Amino acid sequence: MKEYYYDKLLNIHTSKQQIISKDNSIHYHPYEPISYGILELLFITYEVREGDKFVDFGCGLGRFLFYTHYFHRVPVTGIEGNEIYFKKAMENKVQYMMGTKKGAEELEFIHGLAEEYQIKKEDNCFYFFHPFSIHVFRKVIQNILVSVEGNNHVVDLILYYAHDDYVYYLENETLFELDKEIEIPGLYERDAYERILVYRLDY
């Protein structure tokens, strides 16, 4: 019910049924939209701060970005390597702006590989729904660390359904520290990956 309600409210189409393309890469995982119920839970627990700017790696059709932009009024950027997903996200952007009368200046989609994205100094909140292999994840995190060094602001990684290799890497090979763990009620009991982890680096 929430999937229909929020897509209608935001004037977008982001359900898995919208997908007509499959990725064959071993490094990039298939599109799977986070449920709106989990987004509600995330933002009840996670505080969006003034000046935050979100980046969604492997953004698919843009659900996380539209929701965050609409309800929290912060700049958001989506990185998507699949051309069909990217085009659908851009179509959603047009419909979103028409339906909500929101401005487009703080809502950006970029077609390209996550590890090739040039991270801006304003980017400080990075969202991952297990979009790619640990090899790509390492490269992206290293890009983040290089870009934010000396910026003196809080950097957050928001990970949903993070596998053990992501967690091991962050906790053993970076300075990021676990700030929050949000277990998804009704799902975590059956699947230990059904949780949101927030890792923070505070310069």
**How many domains?**
1
Q: Give the overall silhouette.
A: globular
Helix proportion: 25-40%
The helix-and-strand class reads alpha/beta
**Corresponding CATH architecture:** 3-Layer(aba) Sandwich
Q: How many β-strands, per DSSP?
A: 7
Ends distance: 41 Å
CATH-wise, what's the superfamily? Vaccinia Virus protein VP39
The CATH topology comes to Rossmann fold
Beta-strand content bin: 15-25%
Main CATH class: Alpha Beta
Question: Helix-strand pattern, N to C?
Answer: HHEHEHEEHEHEE
Most strands sheet: 7 strands, mixed
Determine the mean pLDDT.
92
Strand order of the main beta sheet, please?
3-2-1-4-5-7-6
* Count of DSSP H/I helices: 6
Please mark out the parts with pLDDT under 50 across 5 or more consecutive residues, or reply none. Answer: none
Radius of gyration of CA atoms, rounded to a whole number: 16 Å
Commentary on this structure:
This protein has six helices and seven strands, in the order H-H-E-H-E-H-E-E-H-E-H-E-E. The protein is of the alpha/beta class. It has a single domain, classed as Rossmann fold (3-Layer(aba) Sandwich), CATH 3.40.50. The protein has a seven-stranded mixed β-sheet with strand order 3-2-1-4-5-7-6, covered by helices on one side.
Essential attributes:
203 residues, alpha/beta, Rossmann fold, seven-stranded mixed β-sheet, 6 helices, 7 strands, 20% strand, globular
Give a short synopsis of this structure.
The protein is an alpha/beta fold. It has 6 helices and 7 strands; from the N terminus they run ααβαβαββαβαββ. The protein has helices spanning 2-10, 36-45, 63-72, 83-100, 134-148, 164-173; strands at 54-57, 76-80, 107-111, 125-128, 154-160, 177-183, 195-202.
